[in-house]
Amino acid sequence: MVQTGFPVIKHRWFSPEEWKWLQHVVPITCVDILPVRHCQNAQKRDVLSVGLILRDTPHQGRRWCLIGGRLCHGEPLRHAIRRQTRETLGRSVRPVLKAAPTPLYVAEYSPSGKYPFLLDPRQHSVGLTYALEIRGVPVPTGEAIRFKWFEVESLPAPKQFGFGQDRVVAACVKQLRSQSSAS
After folding, report:
1. Domain for residue 3, yes or no?
2. d(CA 126, CA 37)
3. Residue 12 falls within a domain, yes or no?
4. How many domains does the chain have?
5. Does residue 39 contact residue 151 with C-beta atoms inside 8 Å?
6. What is the pLDDT of residues 25-70, one digit of tens each?
């Protein structure tokens, strides 16, 4: 066995003290999921609505947010996407994943929230945002108080989003629509 000088981690999660220390010294990689529904017509496949969760944020109170959370050490992205979806929307919900899922958007967060970052008072993190269809009936669990589908023309006001994620949703919808019109 090779000695690396690093402690052997036996558990999937760190203790609260270790986690607090890590959040202050290392950027945290997260997966964020934006559930989408498409309008299918003869001309194009356009995004019709997006799903958001209502949750308590650590700094703004109750706000609409993406589904998401940190990536575990050694965990493939597709497993993290499935895990986060299941932990937030229940075991019967499954994200529709391609063989090699690719993030649609990459969001950067920091405690300062100064440009180019969005605000997360807890940590510097990188959110890999996946816009995915989901199968099954969402039942809010874990941090999700509520799940709701919003038509893209009727999204909550920016102040009703947590972590500045209104900008992430807008960028994802814009990109999905440009992909749809290009096909």
Report:
1. no
2. 25
3. no
4. 1
5. no
6. 889 999 999 999 988 765 567 888 999 999 999 999 999 999 999 9
